[in-house]
């Protein structure tokens, strides 16, 4: 796992919830490949409404019959590592949208015991 702080590249892959790769959800395959490639992080976000190349609106609204909601897979790492991962996406994607954005990563971690670490009531945290 890469620990990342500073300049990075954000890769976002927009696909349909029902898109598959060898009988497995495509978004899951992308996340597992990103993990195997040692990328810093990946998350999947399910949309409540959207449309793409087909111009069909997919929605979560109760009266809609859509069951193929939009899904975004977001991956963040250094530019060379993300660009190298694009080769794997070429193998997986037959349709969808991929965007790349420069970003800055600020990594937060748990605090160690120290003189200034107290809870909201002023008690030292354990």
Automatic annotation (TrEMBL):
InterPro entries the UniProt entry points to: N-reg_PII-like_a/b, N-reg_PII/ATP_PRibTrfase_C, UPF0166
Positions of transmembrane segments: none
Domain of life: Bacteria
Organism: Streptomyces violaceus
Official protein name in the record: DUF190 domain-containing protein
Pfam families: DUF190 (PF02641)
Annotated family: Belongs to the UPF0166 family.
Lineage: Bacteria, Bacillati, Actinomycetota, Actinomycetes, Kitasatosporales
């Amino acid at each position: 796992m890469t620990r990342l702080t500073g300049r990075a590249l954000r890769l976002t892959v927009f696909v349909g919830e029902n898109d598959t790769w060898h009988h497995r959800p495509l978004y899951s395959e992308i996340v597992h490949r990103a993990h195997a490639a040692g990328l810093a992080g990946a998350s999947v976000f399910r949309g409540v409404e959207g449309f793409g190349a087909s111009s069909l609106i997919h929605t979560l609204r109760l009266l809609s019959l859509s069951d193929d909601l939009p899904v975004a897979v977001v991956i963040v790492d250094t530019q060379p590592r993300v660009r190298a991962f694009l080769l794997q996406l070429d193998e997986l994607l037959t349709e969808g949208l991929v965007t790349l954005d420069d970003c800055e990563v600020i990594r937060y971690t748990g605090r160690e015991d120290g003189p200034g670490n107290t809870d909201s009531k002023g008690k030292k945290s354990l």
